[in-house]
Amino acid sequence: xxxxxxxxxxxxxxxxLSACTNNNKDTGQSNPTKQTDTPTQTEQSIxxxxxxxxxxALEERWKIEENDAELTTELYTRxxxxxxxxxxxxxxxxxxxxxxxxxxxxxxxVEALVEGKQMxxxxxxxxxxxxxxYEDEVFEESTEAIYKLxxxxxxxxxxxxxxxxFDRLVKYGEEYSKRDD
Length: 181
Hints:
By secondary structure, the chain is mainly α. Helix content is 73%, strand content 0%. The chain has one domain (39-180). The chain starts with a helix and ends with a helix.
């Protein structure tokens, strides 16, 4: 029901925004001061912007992970919120990407973050249950998305430790992807 509602709401937003756009059809009037991006420039830039924001989100999360030890609901929520600060703007935007594979993987990753945040209350309540659900749903989905994003465009980090962390996530994602095939 929730997915149906989300889909319906997404469609309403898309159609609503479509009605508000100006197709710039020739009306006999010119406006030389108006500058517009071509569709390709705009679409291409969202792909590149996502990759940049994705890297930044992971780096910022890893900065705070290094300083904290025991996982709690509050701490995990802070990790996810740190990533969502950079990535939430891409939620339900998969059709805006020039490369739809990037858009789909980006959507999967953001959805995994949101889903993980929703189940975070279990960490303090029933850690074993949370860990099982997180592993089966959130971690699998997010690492598969990371694997797909990296397969489309190689992602590298200047910090060697961050690169090692990322490479481990890619490896997990590859393993999950093979299991699903």
